[in-house]
Amino acid sequence: MTKIKTAKNSSKKDLIIQKGAGLFRTKGFMAASMRDLADEVGVEAPSLYNHIGSKGEILQVICFKVAAEFTAQLEETEKENWNAATKIEALIRFHISMMANNFDEVFVANNDWKYMDEPFLTNFLNQRRSYEKKMMAIIEAGIKKKEFKNIHPYVAVLTLLSAVRGLEYWHKSKKSISAKVLEDDMIKHLITGLIK
Amino acid sequence: MTKIKTAKNSSKKDLIIQKGAGLFRTKGFMAASMRDLADEVGVEAPSLYNHIGSKGEILQVICFKVAAEFTAQLEETEKENWNAATKIEALIRFHISMMANNFDEVFVANNDWKYMDEPFLTNFLNQRRSYEKKMMAIIEAGIKKKEFKNIHPYVAVLTLLSAVRGLEYWHKSKKSISAKVLEDDMIKHLITGLIK
DNA sequence: ATACAAAACTAATAAGTGTTAGTTTTGTAT
DNA sequence: ATACAAAACTAACACTTATTAGTTTTGTAT
């Protein structure tokens, strides 16, 4: 076993993080034990520490991975030469697709970030505040161009982000409603509520 | 001390539940210990058990109290002879006022209900499902009367309830925005997104 | 003042926590 | 086959958890 920190090695770490995300989502970070996680990985609890440094590190990896993906997409969108409504719609659609394709991780980042240690916690909250501010700027621009209603930008951001976060809920009862209908109807509700 | 289970007695239990709600909100149910709670109440941990049966009982009382208040208000609203938009607006305004006036308890009911033991957990989830169904019925009626857009009722309920839940967030950064602006702008966004 | 129960206390229990130490197994490069 | 490190294992630690038992204090009705 000469490989130092690649292929097989990192894939086992990835497995731990993936199973960790699933476990943290269902039980919550605090209620999930390292023994629970070890069971899912198929190993004894102390063996996990050959791959990760601590329970908290798993949470950090999850939260920062999610934050980075959202930030990257926002920066892409900012660059586009679209009107405000198109930008907001693109962002909301991205949030919905993240909820669909990275459910466990997004859920954990949304619900368990507060259990991160410093300085990670502060860093994470700064990233989120920055994200909100950039979204507010898009909305402010839309208001100035009479594209949007005269609404408080922070209230609009809060409404939009909270609404998509609500998909945490839907995931469980996803019978009968197709993902497409859900996405389009939610967009319709949120965007037409915003535009003049 | 002849009083059996009234006045002073129940007010101490109420204090424990009130402090518990505050503690569970900030730390989360699982991360909050009975020793933490005892500190806040100003007593040693075992003394709490003269007033409550278990840690879980505190959570149950909080969750069911919140559920009962929402259910009562919904039933009141159903009886009114209003059009659908007015009913939905009244409900949303009630949610916002609950977030403002019973923040800790609503927060805990929203975030920590999953830690309730059976059969309370199932009972609680049934109450919530019933609440959603009744809200869906109001929206369906609004669609039939061409009052609302042709939107999937469950998606609309999810969007509305999730958006108001997002006020959990705002509470911390309540600077600069007055409660009235917040409430009115959120209503504007959500209701005009719904009506035709 | 006496009686009595509510409610505080101290001490302890059994179970579970994340994690470390030390050892053995496993798998690959030579 | 041998060497060696990655990664598994067992055993244990130090600590925290909710809760119970047993005892003492407190406060009020008589």
Explain what you see:
Two copies of one chain form a homodimer. Chain A has 196 residues and is mainly α. The first copy, chain A, folds into two domains: 53 residues, Arc Repressor Mutant, subunit A, CATH 1.10.10; 132 residues, Tetracycline Repressor, domain 2, CATH 1.10.357. The first copy, chain A, is 70% helix and 0% strand. Chain A has nine helices and no strands. Chain A starts with 6 loop residues before the first helix and ends with a helix. The N terminus of chain A is likely disordered. At the A-B interface, α7, α8 and α9 of A face α7, α8 and α9 of B. The structure holds a DNA duplex (30 and 30 nucleotides).
Short description:
The first copy, chain A, is mostly helical.
Architecture blueprint of SSEs:
The structure is a homodimer of 196-residue chains.
Chain A: H1 7-27, H2 34-41, H3 55-79, H4 84-101, H5 103-112, H6 120-144, H7 153-165, H8 167-170, H9 179-192
The first copy, chain A, binds a DNA duplex (30 and 30 nucleotides) through residues 1-4, 8-9, 12, 33-35, 43-47, 49-51, 54-55.
Helix content of chain A: over 70%
Q: How far apart are the termini of chain A?
A: 64 Å
Major beta sheet summary of chain A:
none
Total number of β-strand segments of chain A?
0
The value of Rg of chain A in angstroms is 19 Å
What would you give as the CATH superfamily of the largest domain in chain A?
Tetracycline Repressor, domain 2
What is the chains' assembly state?
Answer: homodimer
| The CATH architecture of the largest domain in chain A | Orthogonal Bundle
Which pair has the most extensive contact? A-B, 35 and 35 residues
Report the mean per-residue pLDDT of chain A as an integer: 90
Strand-residue proportion of chain A: under 5%
Compute the number of structural domains of chain A.
2
Write the element-wise H/E pattern of chain A from the N-terminal end onward: HHHHHHHHH
Query: CATH class of the largest domain in chain A, anyone?
Result: Mainly Alpha
Total helices of chain A: the number is: 9
Shape of chain A: elongated
